[in-house]
Amino acid sequence: MTVLAALLGLAAALLVPVHASAAATPARPADGQGNIGIQLLEAPVNRRDDPRAHLYIVDHVKPGTTIERRVKVSNDTGERRQFELYPASAEIKNGAFTFAPGRTANELAEWTSVAPEKPVLDPHESIEATVTIAVPEDAAEGERYAVVWAQSSVPPDEKHNVGHTHRVGVRIYLSVGPGGEPPSDFEITDLTAQRDDEGRPSIIAQVRNTGGRALDLRGELRLTEGPGGLSAGPYPTGTAVTLQPGETGKVAVPLTEELPDGPWRAELLLRSGKVERTAAAEVVFPEPGSVVSLTLLRAWSDLTWYVVAAALMFAVFTVALALVVRRKRLSAPARD
């Protein structure tokens, strides 16, 4: 029975999926006089396990809904600063979340307000501000994008011969619709390996957004089973790629120049929020200035694991039933 119990435990374990998540820290660009910053302070209860919701305002609401989010605005310079807090337009274009110049408005920006609007912060002081998004009753279904900016300007004076303006922002991804939130999903459709003219290798993944929400794709690549049993990595992806629903884009993973050509087993993990996808391929890096397409290795999907686990459970219970029946027959008294 000890062996039987072990088999049952193994089968049950196979039915429990493993999930992973990762978080990132928002950048705070520096100017010549120090840093100014803005940071989202809260995420909706139903998104506490979504790393993107701790960086950006990400939500799905019905028409007529009003939501609020708190942000922290900080002045880490050595000077007293006047700030302007305001929303402005953004769009997703060519695989990037693109900011509009100045106070350019779009529909989402017009729904958004920030209070206070013009705080004055002493050196190394920070305040909390409230971002309010009021979606009208007649808002059309779809996802919209904007940015909440914290801007500070320094005019020319005795200390600064030239005035300058700096701003930092928090992105807004707002989906509007009558029902539940559209699902987020993507697939890695192709991998290529290349070396540039200087011989630097990289892996390029082609990714398609198959869901109903925008994605911010980041991840890492590992190389294993290399020449002489070598392993390398993980190598982080380059600049995050942002894709609209239905859009296809490319995610690049730059590698170190001294890597041998191979063969290697390349394993790529990409994620956006809570959604993760993987792809693997055998790779031999080409000559400098060349690109080669890789054949994806078939990976077992979650559904495949569940089917295999269910089959194993069925087999285990069949064996268990057979053992019980056999024992009963052996223990039954013989009849004359």
Automatic annotation (TrEMBL):
Residues 1-22 form the signal peptide. The chain crosses the membrane at residues 303-325. Keywords: Membrane, Signal, Transmembrane, Transmembrane helix. The keyword Membrane applies. It comes from the Bacteria. This is Peptidase.
